[in-house]
Amino acid sequence: NAGVTQTPKFRILKIGQSMTLQCTQDMNHNYMYWYRQDPGMGLKLIYYSVGAGITDKGEVPNGYNVSRSTTEDFPLRLELAAPSQTSVYFCASRRQTGFETQYFGPGTRLLVL
Amino acid sequence: DAKTTQPPSMDCAEGRAANLPCNHSTISGNEYVYWYRQIHSQGPQYIIHGLKNNETNEMASLIITEDRKSSTLILPHATLRDTAVYYCIVRVGDSGGGADGLTFGKGTHLIIQP
């Protein structure tokens, strides 16, 4: 299993541009998550999904959108990028049942200039 | 979820046991203690979790005090590859927990010295 994969690894955006961060998991997990991590800080939850067609806001959803059309994929969309969205973005997944063992992807480093 | 308190940084000599403390004095009876770590520039990695009994796996041991207000993660023979930020997270277990994500604080930056 590849686990959780994310693309791209690194991206530079200009202010006002848009992009989609891709996340795919091959573990058949129902629950998926997007976090962001600013330098020297812990992770903050942006959005999460409990299954295809179901998403919900986390702690810091403003400026982002998500969709979940399949169990495997959970893309994160940035509309009108701002410097405040410069961060490292991590996608994670876990089983619906069982303990809170989340599996994280390698992250996408985003720089907005 | 109950709040946790961890020291911002710790040093440990290579080959020695690394003991990372975590305070969670407001923990509820149905909340578990989870430990994750994040090696530089990588995604967090699950280490271990426990409710009230001590737990051990191939990575670490978790010691939870009898009153459950604090815990210690033990890496028995630390190596340079264990240098990372370690997060202690308190979370309701699956039977009562929701689907929303984990709450990460700033964790403890453990530096293993050669």
Largest sheet of chain B: 5 strands, mixed
Q: First CA to last CA of chain B: what distance?
A: 37 Å
| Most extensive protein-chain contact, per-chain counts | A-B, 29 and 24 residues
- Which range does the strand content of chain A fall in? over 45%
Count of helical stretches of chain A: 0
- Could you tell me the number of beta strands of chain A? 11
Quick one: overall form of chain B? globular
Order of helices and strands of chain B: EEEEEEEEE
Structural overview:
The complex is a heterodimer of chains A (113) and B (114). By secondary structure, chain A is mostly beta strands. Chain A has no helices and 11 strands. In chain A, strands 2, 4, 5, 6, 9, 10 and 11 form a 7-stranded mixed beta sheet that branches. Chain A has a 4-stranded antiparallel beta sheet with strand order 1-3-8-7, with no helix packed on it. Chain A is globular, with a radius of gyration of 13 Å. The relative contact order of chain A is 0.33. Chain B is mainly β. Helix content of chain B is 0%, strand content 46%. In chain B, the strands form 2 sheets. In chain B, strands 1-9-8-3-4 form a 5-stranded mixed beta sheet, with no helix packed on it. Chain B is globular and about 40 Å long.
